[in-house]
Amino acid sequence: MHEVSLGPELDALAAAAQARRLVTVATVVDAPRASGIAVGQKLIVDEDETIGSLGDGPLDLLVAAEARVAMDERKSRVTVYDVPGGPEGSNVEIFFDVLEPTPQLVIIGAGHIAVPLATYGKILGFEVVVLDDRDKYASVERFPTADRVIAADFGKTLQGFPLTRSSYVVIITRAHTYDEESLRIILDRQWAYLGMIGSRRRVQTVLRILGAEGFDEERLRMIRAPIGLDLASETPEEIALSIMAEVVAVRRGGSGEPLSSPSRFRPIAVSEVAK
């Protein structure tokens, strides 16, 4: 074994963090001497490029592909590879560490649902940004837990607002015209989650309008609308909870299904518990 220089790799990690990009660090955690691959060697894979090498070109290609899968799933893992062209038994163990920047919750619309939503988002570790075009609503006094509160025009602000694959966007404006304006700007950008509040009728109206304008149908289907999980919510706090539950499910890869659902496991009968 020998020490490995991490100069370029560290620079790549710093740049990814500054740009709020996802990145996967693939590290050799076990390798036989016969493989010629050093334990501790790293390959950095971010959304745009691959930095470094594990010391084997074909292996680099395999690892880079797996790193992007891990990045998409946001799940770290360990994978064992046969070194391409290497001697028999040359198994190399790679740890894929997915590094995600602080997730960002962007709340478009500062009405009554946005207030508890911003609070829940902060509690759950999100960087919270609230945007509304009304000073009366978009104020620090109403959103003391938010990281940024922006009182400005929806369209102009969103045009220059940086969104990444760690951005979770919730559209809860007061009118479908603002929903449409926001979606036109955001739809083809990067985001991890895009949800819009509204009745099914209102949602379908917006989606039909955007579809007629030529927006990609697959992207339109990715919009979570009506927004949230079915909690039979009624109050603003309950609706905000259903929205954040869906956001967390998307972020963590959950199904939103009850943990007690029979489809997850065989229910235990009361008689069995008694035994």
In short:
With 275 residues, the chain is α/β, with parallel strands linked by helices. It is 35% helix and 20% strand.
Keywords:
275 residues; disordered N terminus; elongated; five-stranded antiparallel β-sheet; alpha/beta; five-stranded parallel β-sheet
Description:
With 275 residues, the protein is an alpha/beta fold. The protein folds into two domains: 7-99, no CATH class; 104-252, Rossmann fold. The protein is 35% helix and 20% strand. It has nine helices and ten strands. The chain has a five-stranded antiparallel beta sheet, sandwiched between helices. α3 links the parallel β6 and β7 (127-132). α5 (176-186) crosses α6 (200-212).
Give the topology, please.
Layout: H1 7-18, E1 23-30, E2 42-46, E3 50-52, H2 57-73, E4 77-82, E5 91-99, E6 104-108, H3 114-123, E7 127-132, E8 148-151, H4 154-159, E9 167-171, H5 176-186, E10 193-196, H6 200-212, H7 217-221, H8 236-252, H9 270-274
Parallel strand pairs: 6-7, 6-9, 7-8, 9-10
Antiparallel strand pairs: 1-2, 1-5, 2-3, 4-5
Helix pairs in contact: 3-8, 5-6
Oligomer: single chain
**Poorly predicted ranges:** 1-6
Overall morphology: elongated
> How much helicity do the residues have?
25-40%
What is the CATH topology classification name of the largest domain?
Answer: Rossmann fold
Strand segment tally: 10
The fraction of residues assigned to DSSP E strands is 15-25%
Task: Specify the CATH architecture of the largest domain.
Answer: 3-Layer(aba) Sandwich
Count of helical segments?
Answer: 9
The major beta sheet can be summarized as: 5 strands, antiparallel
Whole-number radius of gyration? 23 Å
Taking the alpha carbons of the first and last residues, their distance comes to 55 Å
**Strand and helix order:** HEEEHEEEHEEHEHEHHHH
Strand order of the largest sheet: 3-2-1-5-4
